[in-house]
């Protein structure tokens, strides 16, 4: 499970000299300041003619962080950005990798830069994808599947929230059950009832909230019903969150790669605010498996 070290958190902020990379330095700096982190800004020029502009961007970033009381080491490299970021992340044990990302199209899986996806999948630490420009870190949304695979994300986000004095909303979206299960729907609408039920979903959500409580983080559990992505983005828009947190699972066929599930991919694709992707060593259950387990518990209690 990724953990923030108590006194020596290390952040790697990556820059290619672009405007969005500047936004990544700025938002990453908010976290660096809150966590008193040891910070490195890695600038990568793909072409020789880009070296001066990348170095100028690094100096701007260093000056910005210095104004916030954050000292940053500057490192410049030339070559393939993905390879250089992965190599640096392997050479030094970072707690967080920060990248900027821009949309390259208007539809489908090509909305987000392919480089961003490759970095998220290739490096081991949590990856913060800075989309847009947020000026504060006060409201965090964790997209919880109500399973243990999200525990790493809850723990990591909770530690960030504790340092930044931010609040957290734990969001779980339940696919609407058939009409015959309307009683289940009513129960799910009552958060307190669900959290104190014997259902795995309720127990997992309660455990997540209790962990945040122990960290001193103000948090709430929110339930929605319907299509998962639709409800997630409704919550993001209505809640005006500074950061959205989601998870990824390891690709069992490749020790160095992580799988971005459809939900995580679409959140990264379509969110208008920074997204933090935290790795898990466990894989989430499919919707079919989740529903099967949910209904079997309910039926066993009614017998």
Describe the structure.
This protein has 303 residues and is of the alpha/beta class. It folds into 2 domains: 10-130, HUPs (Rossmann fold, 3-Layer(aba) Sandwich); 139-302, Rossmann fold (3-Layer(aba) Sandwich), CATH 3.40.50. Helix content is 44%, strand content 21%. It has helices at 19-35, 51-67, 81-91, 114-122, 151-164, 182-189, 191-195, 200-214, 228-239, 262-270, 287-302, and strands at residues 10-15, 38-45, 72-78, 96-100, 127-130, 139-143, 167-174, 219-225, 243-250, 258-259, 275-279. Helix 1 (19-35) runs parallel beside helix 2 (51-67) and helix 3 packs parallel to helix 4. Mean pLDDT is 81; it is low at 3-7, 254-259 and 286-303.
SS field, number of helical segments? 11
Q: Provide the helix percentage.
A: 40-55%
CATH superfamily of the largest domain: HUPs
Question: What shape does the CA trace take?
Answer: elongated
Secondary-structure topology with pairs:
Blueprint: E1 10-15, H1 19-35, E2 38-45, H2 51-67, E3 72-78, H3 81-91, E4 96-100, H4 114-122, E5 127-130, E6 139-143, H5 151-164, E7 167-174, H6 182-189, H7 191-195, H8 200-214, E8 219-225, H9 228-239, E9 243-250, E10 258-259, H10 262-270, E11 275-279, H11 287-302
Parallel strand pairs: 1-2, 1-4, 2-3, 4-5, 6-7, 6-9, 7-8, 9-11
Antiparallel strand pairs: 5-11, 9-10
Helix pairs in contact: 1-2, 3-4
């Amino acid at each position: 499970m990724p953990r923030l070290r108590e006194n020596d958190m290390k952040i790697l902020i990556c820059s290619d000299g672009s405007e969005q990379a500047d936004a990544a330095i700025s938002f990453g700096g908010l976290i660096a300041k809150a966590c008193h982190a040891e910070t490195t800004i890695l600038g990568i020029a793909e072409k020789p003619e880009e070296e001066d502009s990348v170095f100028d961007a690094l100096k701007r970033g260093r000056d910005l962080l210095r104004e916030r009381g954050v000292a940053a080491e500057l490192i410049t490299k030339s070559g393939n950005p993905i390879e250089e970021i992965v190599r640096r992340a392997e050479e030094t044990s970072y707690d967080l990798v920060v990248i900027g990302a821009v949309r390259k199209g208007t539809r489908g899986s090509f909305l987000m830069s392919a480089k961003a996806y490759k970095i998220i999948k290739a490096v081991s630490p949590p990856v913060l994808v800075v989309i847009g420009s947020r000026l504060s870190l006060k409201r965090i949304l964790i997209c919880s599947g109500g399973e243990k695979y999200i525990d790493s994300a809850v723990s990591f986000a909770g530690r960030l929230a504790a340092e930044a004095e931010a609040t957290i909303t734990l969001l779980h979206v339940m696919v609407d059950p058939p009409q015959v299960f309307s009683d289940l729907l009513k129960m799910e609408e009552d958060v307190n009832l669900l959290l104190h039920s014997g259902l795995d979903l309720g127990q997992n959500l309660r455990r997540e909230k209790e962990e945040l409580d122990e960290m001193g983080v103000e948090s709430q559990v929110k339930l929605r019903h319907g299509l998962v992505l639709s409800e997630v983005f409704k919550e993001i828009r209505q809640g005006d969150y500074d950061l959205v947190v989601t998870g990824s699972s390891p690709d069992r066929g490749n020790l160095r790669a992580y799988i971005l599930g459809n939900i995580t991919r679409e959140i990264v694709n379509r969110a208008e605010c920074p997204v933090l992707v935290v790795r898990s060593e466990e894989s989430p259950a499919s919707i079919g498996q989740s529903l099967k387990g949910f209904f079997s518990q309910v039926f066993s209690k009614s017998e």
